[in-house]
Amino acid sequence: MFQDVSFAYPQRPDVPVLRGLSMRLNPGESVAIVGSSGSGKSTIAALLQRLYEPSRGIITMGGRLLSATEVSHLRNNVAIVSQSPHLFDASVRDNITYGTEGALQAQVEHAAKLAHIHDFVTELPNGYDSNIGDKATLLSGGQAQRIQIARALMRPAPVLILDECTSALDPANEAAVIDTIRGIKDGRTTLMITHKVPVMRMCDRIIVVQEGEIVEQGSYEALMARRKVFYELTTAGEWA
């Protein structure tokens, strides 16, 4: 829960990014955070990861102050899939199991199947032992992203944050990843920073952020029928 949260980046303390923002995510709910570039939506994800602390206001998770939560506990309970895959010059297996100790091969393959990457991996010369190269140069963007998703699925984290994770994918890979998200979001509290309409439509609720404030929220259909900010952004091609 965000309660009256304001934030400005340390490099530009005089430029507010969030302005008294308050919102609540219910357990098991899937919520899309949308808005034009610079609206503050990715900052919300950064604050939830404690990459920064709010300038004002409080953030709680599971009834606990986020500022008082140990980083190790946070990492065990929040899985992140970011826009740019953070992969290493190591095997597919090592990249999927990074941050998860004692993972069994069956668990690795299960996560890979959920992320729609298992079939591709098994076709590699050394399967899960295949090295992906420096900065994943031996993979396509879609393949690299789905390995990152498989890594997030290795841990049974109750909270999943997807920060523009389909933005760099071609239509076929995007469709596969969206199918993955649809299947894995049940039973988790899922926050999706997105500008993809199919992702928005699968969410229980859409929160529209503009200039660091929540200006409206509701389902895709309800927001379109309201014909206000979300409708204007959609018809203007903001999500194209």
CATH class: Alpha Beta
Largest sheet: 6 strands, mixed
Oligomer: single chain
- How are the strands ordered across the major sheet? 6-7-8-3-9-10
Q: What is the count of DSSP helices, taking H or I runs of 4+ residues?
A: 10
Uncertain regions spanning at least 5 consecutive residues: none
CATH topology: Rossmann fold
Number of domains: 1
CATH architecture: 3-Layer(aba) Sandwich
- CATH fourth-tier homologous superfamily: P-loop containing nucleotide triphosphate hydrolases
Give a short summary of the structure:
By secondary structure, the protein is α/β, with parallel strands linked by helices. It contains 10 helices and 10 strands. The strands form 2 sheets. Strands 6-7-8-3-9-10 form a 6-stranded mixed beta sheet, with helices on both faces.
Description:
It is a single chain. This protein has ten helices and ten strands. The protein is of the alpha/beta class. The protein has a single domain, classed as Rossmann fold. It has a six-stranded mixed β-sheet, with helices on both faces. It has a four-stranded antiparallel β-sheet with strand order 2-1-4-5, covered by helices on one side. Strand 7 (159-163), helix 7 (171-184) and strand 8 (189-193) form a beta-alpha-beta unit. Helix 4 packs across helix 6 (141-153) and helix 6 (141-153) runs parallel beside helix 7 (171-184). The mean pLDDT is 89.
